[in-house]
Automatic annotation (TrEMBL):
UniProt-recorded name of the protein: Nucleoporin Nup43
Protein's organism: Eucalyptus grandis (Flooded gum)
Keywords, ordered alphabetically: Nucleus, Repeat, WD repeat
SUPFAM superfamilies per record: WD40 repeat-like (SSF50978)
Cellular component per GO, a single term: nucleus
PANTHER family: NUCLEOPORIN NUP43 (PTHR22652)
């Protein structure tokens, strides 16, 4: 695996939690001085899943800031935004429910913003994404259902956009605009949806170069606010690629096992669990088609990948790195969850 080491190395602080971390997200800032993260945890001793708010000190120490909010099942996906001047967290569960919680800035308690949406999926929900502004969620599952859930007047309004009845499975989702979102699934498939056009996706990604790997799964997707026509995807066998709606049959492939010519390096040979555009780094090449991205993987790699360059390794662990997030106030600082019941916080120079 050709991965170069970042000079100078980031400052890394590892913090044990003594329970499994299913997801972690920075909360939108309350003030310029205080920083908080929301953690979806699972205590295997008591078989208890919950959401917790932790304060992060300047020395990168974690401290539980409020009582944990219990959930009926383990979290499968976690997102946070600011809505109505409060941090709002959306969590989907392995039981198929969706929970939208608000964090009280006064005492940091986690309170339901509305009654939970139950029965959205036949089985677990794979992914939820919360639109900027916090009012709308898209929820997808391996059952082939695509749901829109809107928050208003203390309740969740549910609408089923599509139901493939299990013939298609969805594993990732991301808003592109107030009306458009993308989904990813098995066979490295990507679908583009427009809520103004009901009945199904308005565009589908089909590429022989990737579709021949029928067992591949898209685990995570991201869409940059300045490049809403491009969907970034990470999945099985270290695969990282981008789908440009303007050139739908010409994907930009950054990494992947067996992807052939044009792939300059391989950052990982295992599952890419999460992928996000790295907003703290400017492209080295002015004419680059892709902005730099960050990934975390099953084989314990947290790295920055840039088109035409060798990946830069930030963290290498003996266990999976399941999720990560950028500090909205300082994107050079990254928080990530490690499979061995701990959190890592990286501060890049």
């Amino acid at each position: 695996m050709a991965v170069t080491q970042l000079p100078p190395s980031p400052e890394i602080r590892k913090l044990p939690l003594y329970k499994y971390v299913d997801g972690v997200r920075w909360l939108p800032p309350f003030s310029a001085l205080d920083r908080y993260a929301v953690i979806a945890s699972f205590d295997s001793d008591s078989d208890t899943p919950s959401l917790e708010v932790h304060s992060v000190s300047p020395s990168k120490a974690l401290a539980l800031a409020s009582a944990p909010a219990p959930l009926p099942s383990r979290v499968s996906s976690l997102k946070s935004v600011s809505f109505a001047q409060r941090p709002v967290v959306a969590a989907s569960t392995r039981a198929g429910s969706l929970h939208v919680m608000a964090v009280n800035p006064m005492d940091l308690s986690i309170e339901p913003a509305a009654a939970a949406a139950e029965g959205l999926h036949a089985g677990g929900a794979s992914c939820v994404d919360l639109a900027d502004g916090g009012g709308d969620c898209v929820s997808v599952g391996e059952d082939g259902r695509v749901n829109l859930v809107s928050l208003g007047e203390g309740r969740l309004r549910k609408a089923r956009v599509f139901d493939a009845n299990g013939l298609v499975s969805y594993t990732a989702a991301k808003w592109a605009s107030p009306s458009e979102f993308a989904t990813g699934g098995y066979g490295f498939s990507l679908h583009w949806w427009d809520r103004r056009t009901p009945g199904g996706p308005v565009s589908q990604f089909k590429c022989d170069r990737i579709q021949e790997k029928a067992s591949g799964i898209v685990h995570s997707i991201d869409i940059h606010p300045s490049r809403k026509h491009t969907c970034l995807a990470g999945g099985s066998s270290g695969t990282i690629f981008a789908w440009d709606l303007r050139r739908q049959q010409q994907p930009i492939i950054l990494s992947g096992v067996g992807m052939g010519e044009g792939v300059t390096s391989l950052v990982s040979e295992s599952e890419i669990w999460e992928i996000q555009y790295d907003r703290s780094i400017k492209p080295s090449n002015v004419g680059s088609r892709m902005l730099p991205v960050m990934i975390c993987s099953e084989d314990g790699i947290l790295a920055v990948v840039e088109e035409g360059k060798e990946p830069v390794e930030l963290l290498a662990e003996p266990c999976a790195i399941n999720s990560f997030d950028f500090d909205p106030q300082k994107p050079s600082e990254v928080i990530c969850s490690l499979e061995w019941e701990s959190i890592a916080i990286l501060s890049r120079p």
